[in-house]
């Protein structure tokens, strides 16, 4: 089989050995969970419980009428102790703190929703929305929004992302091995919502067992194709993945739906299957806890709201003094100020780097080696954009297509002068977008 | 947790590439040819090479000290410049010639334009051009390799008949291994290719510039250079510093385009200019001037070859 790919990209070391062969374990029950009312871009939820209320597993505790948003649910049964602004992995947000009674009593509304063959696309969409399902790859974008393209955009196919191109992470890999049927079930639900008959599942070729497992699962399905992808970062980036699977190029500044494609993560598909089959909304997820700074790396099924600290303790605790605690992978993950923050829907992993690994390299002058241009998957020229960004010449940066940057970090990764390219490009992007808003 | 966590913008993982590694790789790639140069031209080569490297490193250190910048001589880039300059000087040259060349390369070409990465011309080549213009006689005093060096001409001068007519052409094998008259480092084609392949293998350079440059010269000299003579073409390709120029000089990061398309145009330009100078100009070598000219054009080429952005409709 010829493996498919995109142009550009880098080959960071995989670092997946520590956890690829470890079965997903259920994490210890948290005594207290802290559930943020905002876990992604879009509108925050309003709390619909009060301090002192009794809540059950799967009970809705926050919601909003805004479209680009999803409700949040309790992951434990117990008492609401506090509702206040607190630090979360993505910044400060209002959080609901619930003390568990340890009983895990399930809420009455949590009942199986029937089979997809009996449900209409509309019904499935509202189940997905109600269950608070978001993209499980890390960005946590509300799934029902992705599944509601405007009527003039004809969707032809779904691409399911099983690339897991971030080094270290193995959560999706384990899911594809341990629960391929749920992924297919969820995918079929999405296909019904969008009324499409064609889907691809893209998986990097460094996971041959996952490709095998998914192929077996789709044997009897028509219209679903498992594609092996060349192992290269950022193979799992939306536009690059679409290109690899379908050879369609999403227009610059456009969205996947502009070429008739919707991309979702394999974890998202499994979460959809779970809510349809059991009625349980998104209250837990698989995360890879790994890195040199962790004694005993694991793939854990964690409840949303469990503190990082507790999760890390279950993995043997820190190996020496930690240098960096990152939510997500090393290429796009978010470095955290503390471990006293809760796991959220987008926590695909917790990566702890040793102090030595975390030390920031000292930037040297650009030697114009051209490597960043060579590898940029968006085909832009990071060295120039970054240079203009550093001189506050954001208009020139825009002319060099700064907005096309997908923030994959490949340029900063490859630069032999260790220049913080992406960091400066981000600044420019923010400035350009802010200015556009103003002039609108 | 009693220590403070480091918080920074992603990515949190960096390749282990560094300027030092790249420059060290260039030195490693040049070592076989350096040793061959020393073997063929004996003490003369040792003297020129040492003088050029020491002068380059000292100049860089002094300039950075005076300007109160961090001294970066341990990034090996001054060593590379010195060594490349020495490769472009005959072994018979007096010791002060490479010294002046290195000072010029580092002080004028590199540092007045802002240091590493900002030189718009290849420092070693610019210095060679300067030396050739100022001291033409010692810069072209070629000798035969070996201990009993006698005055000779370079293979290209021989084949174009401009000098020393009547002397026998060196054999193809001698040309390949470098047993011919010429500058210290430009004679052994095979060792220069070996080093070039190493650089490609290590990811320091892409094959784009050297391959296109050399093929262009091969094709043009074959077609235009006197009746489709294969022998003439091979001579043109193996002699006269083309290998040195194509693998190590034209690929200089700062003075060549960064866009892939730009690099293609640049390499084509180098090849065309070299062929024209050799075939129609009065000067048998042509490599260094072609590269210098294309260096000057590089920023312009870059400007007009911005890659098509992913998903952009033109
Ligand atoms: S990779 Fe770094 S040194 Fe090379 S051109 Fe880009 S910014 Fe400059
Ligand atoms: S410029 Fe943006 S898209 Fe290109 S490599 Fe850098 S982070 Fe990735």
How would you sum up this structure, described in words?
- The complex is a heterodimer of chains A (440) and B (314).
- Chain A is built from 15 helices and 17 strands.
- Chain A is of the alpha/beta class and 440 residues long.
- Chain A has helices at 17-20, 121-130, 143-146, 171-178, 180-194, 208-218, 238-246, 266-278, 308-314, 355-358, 371-375, 382-390, 394-399, 410-414, 421-439, and strands spanning 25-26, 32-36, 46-47, 54-55, 60-63, 72-73, 78-88, 91-100, 157-162, 198-204, 224-229, 261-265, 284-290, 298-303, 322-327, 334-336, 349-354.
- Chain B is mainly alpha-helical and 314 residues long.
- Chain B is globular.
- Residues 162-166 of chain B have low confidence and may be disordered.
- At the A-B interface, strand 15, strand 16, helix 11, helix 14 and helix 15 of A face helix 1 of B.
- Residues 376-378, 380, 382, 405-411, 421-422, 425 of chain A line the site of one iron/sulfur cluster.
């Amino acid at each position: 089989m010829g493996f498919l790919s995109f142009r550009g990209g880098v080959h960071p070391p995989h670092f997946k050995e520590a956890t690829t062969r470890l079965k997903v374990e259920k994490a210890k029950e948290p005594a207290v969970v802290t559930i943020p009312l905002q876990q992604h871009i879009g509108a925050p939820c309003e709390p619909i419980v009060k301090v002192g209320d009794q809540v059950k597993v799967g009970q809705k505790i926050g919601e909003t009428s805004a479209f680009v948003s999803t409700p949040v649910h309790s992951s434990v049964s117990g008492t609401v102790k506090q509702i206040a602004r607190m630090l979360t992995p993505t910044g400060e947000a209002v959080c609901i703190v619930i003390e568990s009674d340890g009983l895990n009593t399930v809420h009455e509304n949590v009942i199986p929703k029937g089979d997809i063959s009996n449900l209409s696309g509309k019904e499935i969409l509202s189940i997905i929305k109600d269950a608070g399902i978001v993209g499980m790859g890390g960005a946590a974008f509300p799934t029902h929004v992705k599944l509601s393209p405007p009527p003039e955009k004809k969707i032809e196919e779904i691409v399911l992302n099983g690339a897991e191109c971030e080094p270290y992470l193995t959560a999706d890999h384990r899911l594809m091995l341990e629960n391929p049927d749920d992924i297919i079930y969820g995918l079929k639900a999405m296909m019904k919502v969008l009324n499409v008959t064609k889907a691809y599942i893209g998986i990097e070729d460094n996971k041959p067992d996952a490709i095998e497992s998914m192929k077996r699962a789709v044997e009897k399905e028509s219209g679903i194709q498992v594609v092996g992808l060349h192992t290269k970062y950022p193979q799992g980036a939306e536009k690059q993945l679409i290109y690899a699977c379908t050879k369609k190029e999403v227009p610059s500044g456009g969205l996947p739906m502009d070429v008739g494609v919707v991309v979702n993560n394999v974890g998202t598909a499994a979460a959809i299957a779970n809510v349809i089959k059991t009625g349980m909304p998104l209250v837990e997820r698989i995360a890879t806890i790994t890195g040199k700074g962790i004694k005993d790396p694991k793939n854990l099924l964690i409840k949303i709201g469990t503190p990082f600290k507790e999760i890390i303790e279950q993995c043997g605790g820190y190996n020496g003094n930690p240098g960096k605690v990152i939510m997500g992978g090393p290429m796009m993950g978010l470095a955290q100020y503390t471990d006293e923050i809760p796991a959220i829907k987008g926590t695909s992993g917790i990566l702890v780097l040793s102090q030595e690994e975390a030390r920031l390299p000292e930037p040297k002058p650009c030697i114009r080696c051209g490597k960043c241009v060579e590898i940029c998957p968006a085909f832009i020229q990071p060295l120039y954009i970054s240079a203009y960004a550093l001189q506050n010449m954001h208009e020139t940066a825009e002319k060099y297509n700064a907005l096309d940057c997908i923030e994959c970090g490949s340029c900063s990764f490859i630069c032999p002068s260790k220049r913080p390219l992406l960091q400066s490009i981000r600044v420019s992007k923010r400035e350009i977008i802010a200015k556009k808003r103003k002039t609108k | 947790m009693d220590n403070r966590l480091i918080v920074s913008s992603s990515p949190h993982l960096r390749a282990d590439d560094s300027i030092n590694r790249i420059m060290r790789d260039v030195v490693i790639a040049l070592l076989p040819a350096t040793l061959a140069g020393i073997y063929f031209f004996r003490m003369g080569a040792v003297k020129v090479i040492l003088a050029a490297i020491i002068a380059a490193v000292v100049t860089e250190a002094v300039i950075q000290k005076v300007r109160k910048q961090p001294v970066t001589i341990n990034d090996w880039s001054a060593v590379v410049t010195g060594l490349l300059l020495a490769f472009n000087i005959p072994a018979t040259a007096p010791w002060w010639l490479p010294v002046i060349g290195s000072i010029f390369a580092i002080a004028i070409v590199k540092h007045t334009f802002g240091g590493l990465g900002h030189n718009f011309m290849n420092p070693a080549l610019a210095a060679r051009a300067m030396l050739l213009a100022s001291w033409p006689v010692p810069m072209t005093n070629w000798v035969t390799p070996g201990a009993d060096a006698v005055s000779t001409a370079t293979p290209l001068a021989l084949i174009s008949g401009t000098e020393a007519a009547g002397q026998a052409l060196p054999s193809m094998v001698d040309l390949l291994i470098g047993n011919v008259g010429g500058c210290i480092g430009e004679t052994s084609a095979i060792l220069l290719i070996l080093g070039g392949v190493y650089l490609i293998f290590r990811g320091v350079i892409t094959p784009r510039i050297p391959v296109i440059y050399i093929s262009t010269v091969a094709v043009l000299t074959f077609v235009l250079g006197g009746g489709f003579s294969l022998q003439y073409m091979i001579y043109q390709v193996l002699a006269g510093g083309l290998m040195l120029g194509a693998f190590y000089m034209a690929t200089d990061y700062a003075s060549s385009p960064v866009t892939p398309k730009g690099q293609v145009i640049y390499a084509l330009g180098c090849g065309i200019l070299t062929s024209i100078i050799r075939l129609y100009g009065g000067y048998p070598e042509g490599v260094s001037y072609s590269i210098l000219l294309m260096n000057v054009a590089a920023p312009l080429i870059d400007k007009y070859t911005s890659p098509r952005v992913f998903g952009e409709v033109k």
